[in-house]
Design brief:
This protein is α/β, with parallel strands linked by helices and 325 residues long. It contains 12 helices and 10 strands.
C-alpha cells in the first residue's frame, strides 16, 4: 500500500501496462449483464472508480454493467459473495486493499481465500495525507513528533475501521517515529473526517480526496503528504520524507478481481478493456481531478504485488497486535 505500485509499474515498463494478447479472448463474452460488487459503502473512492469503469464497459460492450454495494466486515461480505459466485466473468469484485491483503491477518477465519481471486486490474491509487484538527498544537511534522513524545498515548487518531489503510498507516508511522498514538475506529470515511473537523479527533492519515477541500477551506491542517513527491493540488504541503520521516509513504489503491478459477481468456478480455479505458483522456482527466492515478497492470504482475502487500502489512499487524475479531 505505501509504495505507488512500483512492482506493477516496473514489471510493465510503463504506467499503464499493455494487456494480455486478445487472440484467445472469447467472442461471445459478455452476452448478458455483468454485476460489479463493491466491498465498500457508496460514495468512497473504490465505489466512484467502479461506477466509472462500469459505465465505460457498458458503453463498450452494449450490455448492462451494474454496480452493487455490499460493505461490511472490512470488505469481507462483498468478497465472500464474489468468491462463491460462478467463475464465468459475470460477477466481479471491486475492492479496497483490506479484503485482498490485510484481512487474512486480521480475522481468525475468512469464508474465502483472498489469494484465490483472479486479478483483473488495479484501477487507481490515491495518495494519503497526514491531517490534524485545526486547533491541534502542531503545525509541522517535527512539532507533531515533539508533542507526541512529550505526551505518549495522548494523541488520538481515527480510521475507517480496524485494519483499514488509515489504521495501519498510523501504526506504521508510530513504529517508524517511536511514538505512541491511540486508535479510534469509525465506520467509514465521512464519520472520521467529520469528527476531525469538529475537533473530537487529533489526527488522521486519510486519502487526500477526502480531506483536501476541508484543508483548503481552513477547517483542518495538513502537515504532510505520504508520497515520494509533492502532490500538485497541495504543492505547499511537504512530503513526510521531506518533513523528517525517511522512507515513509502510503497510498490507497483499489482493484477489480474475478472469482477463483475464472477462465484466463475471460480475464484477459476484461483486463484489456479496463486498461484501455483507463488510458482514455476523459477518464484520466476525471480521475486526476479526484487525485486518483489510473494504473491498469497485467494480471500476473497484480498477483505478485498483492502477495507482497499481504506479507508487508501482516508484519505491521503482528507487531501491533491488531485483530478484528
Amino acid at each position: 500500500m505505501f509504495r505507488i505500485l512500483t512492482a506493477i509499474i516496473a514489471a510493465a515498463g510503463v504506467l499503464l501496462a499493455t494487456a494480455a494478447s486478445a487472440q484467445q479472448e472469447p467472442a461471445d463474452y459478455p452476452g448478458r449483464t455483468i454485476r460489479v460488487v463493491v466491498s465498500a459503502p457508496a460514495g468512497g473512492g473504490v465505489d466512484i472508480v467502479a461506477r466509472l469503469v462500469a459505465d465505460r464497459l457498458q458503453q463498450l460492450w452494449g450490455h448492462p454493467v451494474v454496480v452493487e454495494n455490499r460493505s461490511g466486515a472490512g470488505g469481507n461480505l462483498g468478497a465472500e459473495l464474489v468468491a462463491q459466485a460462478d467463475p464465468d466473468g459475470y460477477t466481479l469484485l471491486a475492492a479496497q486493499p483490506a479484503p485482498l491483503t490485510t484481512n487474512v491477518s486480521l480475522y481468525k477465519k475468512l469464508n474465502f481465500d483472498p489469494a484465490a481471486f483472479e486479478p483483473i486490474a488495479i484501477m487507481t491509487t490515491i495518495p494519503n495525507a497526514l491531517v490534524v484538527r485545526k486547533e491541534f498544537p502542531a503545525n509541522t511534522v517535527a512539532e507533531l513528533l515533539a508533542y507526541a513524545k512529550a505526551n505518549p498515548g495522548k494523541i488520538n487518531y481515527g480510521s475507517q475501521g480496524t485494519g483499514t489503510t488509515p489504521h495501519l498507516t498510523a501504526e506504521l508511522f508510530a513504529r517508524m517515529t517511536g511514538t505512541q498514538l491511540t486508535h479510534v475506529p469509525y465506520r467509514g470515511t465521512a464519520a472520521a473526517v467529520n469528527d476531525l473537523i469538529a475537533g473530537h479527533l487529533d489526527l488522521l492519515f486519510m486519502q487526500i480526496d477526502a480531506v483536501r477541500e476541508h484543508f483548503q477551506a481552513g477547517k483542518i491542517k495538513m502537515l504532510a503528504v505520504a508520497t515520494h513527491e509533492r502532490v500538485d493540488t497541495v504543492k505547499d504541503v511537504p512530503t513526510a520524507i521531506e518533513a523528517g520521516v525517511p522512507g515513509f509513504t502510503s497510498d490507497t489503491w483499489n482493484a477489480i478481481v474475478a472469482p477463483p478459477k475464472t477462465p484466463a481468456p475471460v480475464v484477459a478480455k476484461l483486463n484489456r478493456a479496463i486498461v484501455t479505458l483507463l488510458k482514455r483522456p476523459d477518464v484520466t482527466e476525471h480521475l486526476q481531478k479526484l487525485n486518483m492515478q489510473p494504473i491498469g497492470g497485467k494480471p500476473e504482475d497484480i498477483r505478485k504485488f498483492v502477495t507482497e502487500e499481504t506479507a508487508r502489512w501482516a508484519e505491521v499487524i503482528r507487531a501491533a497486535g491488531i485483530t478484528a475479531n
